[in-house]
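User: Please fill in residues for this 60-position structure.
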C-alpha cells in the first residue's frame, strides 16, 4: 500500500497485552501503526516484529 494512501492508527499501551495484540493485528491488516508505550524493551521487540509490515514505534 502506498504510504500516501495508507490508513494509519496510533495504539497506546502497545508494548504488552491488548495494545500489543491490537498493534499486531492492525499491522497485519495493512494499517500503518504508530505504537506508543511506557517501557522501551517491549516496544523494541514489537518494532522488530512489525518492521517488515511497516510502522513506527515510539518509546517513553
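Assistant: Residues filled in for all 60 positions:
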Amino acid at each position: 500500500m502506498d504510504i500516501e494512501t495508507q490508513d494509519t492508527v496510533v495504539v497506546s499501551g502497545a508494548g504488552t497485552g491488548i495494545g500489543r495484540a491490537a498493534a499486531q493485528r492492525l499491522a497485519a491488516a495493512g494499517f500503518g501503526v504508530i505504537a506508543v508505550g511506557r517501557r522501551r524493551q517491549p516496544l523494541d521487540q514489537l518494532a522488530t516484529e512489525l518492521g517488515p509490515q511497516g510502522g513506527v514505534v515510539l518509546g517513553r
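For context: Residues 8-58 form one domain.
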